Amino acid sequence: MIHLPILKAADRKWETDPSQAPTHDLKDEIFQLEKEGEWIVQRVPEPYFEVKTKYGRIKKIPLEKTWHHKSCGQCGHIPGYSTSIFWLNRQFGLDYHDPTNQTSCTAWNYYASATSNPEAQAAVAIRNFASAYKTGYFPLIHCGTSFGHYKEVRHALVHQPELRRKVKKIMDRLGLPFVIPEEIVHYSEWVYAMRDRIAERQVIDMSHIVATVHPACHYHKLIEEDAIYSEEIYGAQRTAIVTGTLQALGVQVKDYSTWFDCCGFGFRHILVSRDFSRSFAVQRKIEVMKEEANPDVVVTHDTGCVTTLDQSQFAAKAHGKKVGVPVMSDSQMAALAMGAHPYKVLQLHWHNTNNKPFLEKLGIDWKKKWDEFEAECEKIRRGEKAYLTWEDADA
Amino acid sequence: MVERVNNCVIPKDLYYKVEDNTWVKLNDDGTVTVGMTDIAQSLAGPILHAKTKKIGMYRKRGKPIATVESGKWVGPIKAPVSGEIAEINAELENDPQLLNKSPYRKGWVVKLKPDNLDEELKDLVTGDEAVAKYREKIEAEGLQCTHLEGTDSYEE
Amino acid sequence: MEFALDLSANKYADVPYEEKERLFKEMKSDERWPHVLYGCYECGICVASCPSARFYDFSPRIIAQAAAREDVDLLYTLMNDSVWDCSQCFSCDRCPRGNSPGQIITVMREVAVRNGLQSAKEALEGYGRIIYKIMSTGTQVSPDMLQPNAFPDWGGHVNEISEHLEVWRKALPPETLHTTETGWKVDEKTLIELYLIWHMTGVMDMIEQIDEGLYMILVDVMEERLEDAGYDVTFD
């Protein structure tokens, strides 16, 4: 394996200038189509944060009144990820909605099997957006794949009138309005925008923690201009997402030579061609991270990435490979920093790679915390309570 | 009464739709009991869910009477003969692995009130003919049956 | 997929050229084609960033090249032997020409599925339960899919999860997550809307080409639920 040297950023200061952007602003076209009566554009509710994207354009990130578009893999297999996002919102007393009239974006299936088509994918997207619009809450997307996919769908709908016509017909049949949100916002963008406020409420010191960041391909490679970049972070040469959040928490973010590499999720591969996912996750990502940065934790912001990087390490132990780094999301890290319970909120028992040494390093008595969680589970088993509630989670 | 081909169990007293891997048992009261074969359970692997259609539903032969899910596979159990669903095996909801361990007895799926049995039975096979057809299929596809612990021994 | 990619056109020499051309025309007439393919000058930037290129005998450059040169024979070979290796990460979208080899592949895959190619069926073997789950419940994976026999390479941890599944799912604060058969609680009305989308966009026809048994149970479930909701809709 060839280790590429990590090149230091040049001293020249990079300034983004939207007037020099190689693409025109899609928002102009989106609003123009609204003027022409093609669709309704749901505005970002106030108050909102303003962040810069790749070419220096401003993106609006809502503070609250968000409709949480959940992630299949998170809710299905690593539910602490979703739980931590809701918990953060609750800690700040923010008004949010967790819908039951939401379907999957169905993009995992689309990228895995192609047993769908652009019309179906666009209709699924707009159906979800319409459902959000009807509640008056603004969609906040939990999954990286959903985010990238919806950016693609938005792009296709703006440029293909025939596709718009087909989707409108479907929405009419369903009795739903043809709505597109003003921005497609990923939850990690909200966490990034909130990072200083989160840091203000930080109770767990993370200044001695080293982390490596893995940016999700579908966050910053699909419709690459719509991703957060900042001159203060990586000199705007790489997306600022996740890194910005961790730095605000005092975490030492260390670089490694395969930063831009995909984790190997592959959509279909993680289920049916697993040697690929496993090899890629371990040999191109985890081992390189461990050798070059020796992190205490790997932090990412997408369902597939957490799953692939976390689960792939088990089989690699059979070869005595250099693995064994816990993996979690930026929302779980942020929640942990604010004192969230590692099991009642972060639900770390659903994660595979051993995270107990990491918790110990943070001074968290995981044994005691686990006993607390187990006690709640016992109550559920005995029928004393039906569920673990939000009140229980913070007790 | 029970033949084994490549470890696959084939009771000779049942009627089979070989292509669909289903069996039919003729009951004295005119109903038929229907289920999936040992080969089917082996191909599916340990079954996680079995959902039957509702009582009272009429099913033309070939239409699903149940959906079966294993770790990575999902598929129909197709009605080998047409009829109204008279009874369903409620045990399957709590213990879907009955389909693996006892596909011909405790793992029965539904009972049908057939409305064209005499005609449709002509398209099914039984006894030695069934065993011969299955042997053909098993050898052509290179099948070997595997069984979970606690499977019926069929020794009586 | 594990063996060297045969670009000689010998492998599918017995397939009539008209058939290969028909499939190519289907790709080319897709609405996306002119937006994802402008021409390829073989710089190889896509290959350099492609994870599948490191693991399989796979090249997004060859695919973009074949598409740009309209090499009907080569495209047929690639549609059968190559496209399913792509991990759909879109690292190749950094193409300086503005092509998207990943999306060219998406179009090719859809053509393969719609035409029921054997290679597509084989690529999707073992994936049927996922299709059933997403199409019928509106969530891609469910908690009860975490079974050791489905994920043996994830270790004993999966055993632990499946043993405690029911209680652990109840020990989740968000109310919508108290489920085991679906990722989260989905309204009946939402499911009906989803089924209508599948119906109106021809997605079920695509699935029929890939797996008849799967198609049968899906259509059965959907027709029944649509009927209960008062819609007179059949998929045939």
What keyword list fits this structure?
A: 395 residues; alpha/beta; 19 helices; 12 strands; 45% helix; 11% strand; C: 236 residues; mainly alpha; Fumarate Reductase Iron-sulfur Protein, Chain B, domain 2; 13 helices; globular
Overview of the molecule:
The complex is a heterotrimer of chains A (395), B (156) and C (236). Chain A is of the alpha/beta class and 395 residues long. Chain A folds into two domains: 170 residues, Glutathione S-transferase Yfyf (Class Pi), Chain A, domain 2; 178 residues, Rossmann fold (3-Layer(aba) Sandwich). Chain A is built from 19 helices and twelve strands. In chain A, the strands form four sheets. In chain A, strands 5-4-6-8 form a four-stranded parallel sheet. A four-stranded parallel sheet of chain A has the order 10-9-11-12. The longest helix of chain A has 19 residues. The model of chain A has no long low-confidence stretch (mean pLDDT 95). Chain B is of the alpha+beta class and 156 residues long. Chain B contains five helices and twelve strands. In chain B, the strands form three sheets. Chain B has a seven-stranded antiparallel sheet with strand order 7-10-11-5-4-3-12. In chain B, strands 6-8-9 form a three-stranded antiparallel sheet, with no helix packed on it. In chain B, strands 1-2 form a two-stranded antiparallel sheet. Chain B is globular and about 35 Å long. Chain C has 236 residues and is mostly helical. Chain C has a domain of 106 residues: Alpha-helical ferredoxin (Fumarate Reductase Iron-sulfur Protein, Chain B, domain 2). Chain C contains 13 helices and no strands. In chain C, α1 crosses α6 and α5 packs across α7. Chain C starts with 16 loop residues before the first helix and ends in an 8-residue tail after the last helix. The mean pLDDT of chain C is 93. At the A-C interface, α2, α3, α4, α5 and α6 of A face α4, α7, α9, α10 and α11 of C.
Q: Any idea what the CATH superfamily of the domain at 17-122 in chain C is called?
A: Alpha-helical ferredoxin
Spans of chain C of 5+ residues with little confidence (pLDDT < 50)? none
Give the chain pair forming the largest contact, with residue counts.
A-C, 92 and 78 residues
Shape of chain C: globular
**In total, how many domains does the architecture of chain A comprise?**
2
What string gives the helices and strands of chain C in order? HHHHHHHHHHHHH
Query: For this structure, what is the CATH class of the largest domain in chain A?
Result: Alpha Beta
Overall spatial form of chain A: globular
Largest sheet of chain A: 4 strands, parallel
